Amino acid sequence: MPLICENIELMSRRLSESQESNRPLCLTDAFPALTGDIIMEYSFGFCYKSLEDQKFASFHEAFNAIGAAGHIGAQFPGFFWLMNQIPDSITEKLQPALASLLRMKRDQWDLVAKTIREHDAGTQSGRRTIFSEIMQSNLPPEDKTQQRLADEAQTVVGAGVETTSFALCVGSFHIAGTPRIYERLHTELVAACPDWTALPDLHELEKLPYLKACILESLRLSYGLSARNPRTHDRPIQYKEWTIPAETVIAMTIVDVHHDEKIFPDSHAFVPERWLNDPKTADGTPLEHYLMAFGRGPRACLGINMAWTELYLAVGTIFRRFRFELFETDISDVTLEHDNFIPNVKLDSKGVRVLVCSVVDC
C-alpha cells in the first residue's frame, strides 16, 4: 500500500508539472509507467523509475510489439524458442521497441540467480521478493529452476502493467471527455476527501458508489484480455441440454461478453450509471457477474486486489486533484482495433493526450 501511494504521489507531481508548463501529457505513456514501477518494485525489489523519466519510458511499446507476434507463436509453438536464440543485440536492432523488455529479462535472470544462490546458502539480502517466496515454498524442484522463475517474472510484469494501465486510459478519456461524468465524480470525491492535498484513504474511496461505477465501466471497456481463453476439462460437462465431451477445448472472448447488448445495452457507450443501485440482468443475475476483466475461477487474475487498489487510488486521487482537457485525442485512441492477446488500439494512435489543469484553477 505505501508503495502504491508513493507512486501515485509521484504521478500527481508529473501531472502538476504538465499543468505548470501547459504542455500536453500522454496518459497512454504515463499510466504504464505508473503500473510498471509499482509491479516491478513490489515483485522484484527494484524498478526502472519510469515515472521520473521525462518521456515515461516503460514496457508499453515492448509489450505491444511482442503481443503482435503472439498469433504467430500460437500457430508455430517453436517461434518464441527460435526468437530466444537470437542475441539480444541483434533483436534490439531488428525491433528497437523490445530493448526495455530485453533489459528487464537480463536483470531478472541475474536476480533469480542471486536469489537461488542465497537460498542454497541459507542467507538473504534485501527485502523479500516473489523469487525468494517461491524458493521457500513447497513447490517441487522443477518449478524452482532459474529458467522457470525468469519466465514467471515476465508473466507477472506483463499482467501487472498493461491491463491496469489501459483501464486507467479508457476511464480517463471518457471521464475527461464527458463533463457530466467528471462533475459528478469530482463532487463525490470532494465530499469524501475535503483536503485535496492529502492522498485519499483507500477505505473511504471503496465506499463511493460513483467512483466504483466509473472503475467498473473502465474495466468493462478495457476488457483485460482481448484474446480467447481456451480451457479443457478432464470430465464431460453438462451445459443445459448439451453434453460437452471430456478434453474438448472450450474458449470464450471477454470482448463478446462485455458487448452483449442483452446484458449491457448501448454497450459501446461509457455509462457508469449502469452499475449503480445493485443492478441485475433480466434473469436476476447481478450485473457484476458478467464483468470478466479479471477472468473467473482458478485461472482468475492473481493480482486482482492490487489492481483494484491501484484503480481506486489512481482514479480517486487524479480526479480529486485535476481536470483534464483532451488534446488532439478521440475515441479511436481507446477503441479496440487489434487483438494482440491484450487489446490494442489503431496502429497510428498517438495515445490519450491531455492538457492538465488543477481543480483549484478550474
From TrEMBL:
* Source species, domain of life: Eukaryota
| Matching PANTHER family | CYTOCHROME P450, P450, PUTATIVE (EUROFUNG)-RELATED
Keyword Acyltransferase (UniProt): no
The protein here is known as: Cytochrome P450-4
Q: Where does heme bind?
A: C301
Q: Which InterPro entries match?
A: Cyt_P450 (IPR001128), Cyt_P450_CS (IPR017972), Cyt_P450_E_grp-I (IPR002401), Cyt_P450_sf (IPR036396), Cytochrome_P450_monoxygenase (IPR050121)
Q: Does the keyword Oxidoreductase apply?
A: yes
Drop me one GO molecular function for this one: heme binding
Cofactor(s) listed: heme
Alphabetized, the UniProt keywords read:
Heme, Iron, Metal-binding, Monooxygenase, Oxidoreductase
Short name of any one Pfam family annotated for the protein: p450
Q: Give the protein family.
A: Belongs to the cytochrome P450 family.
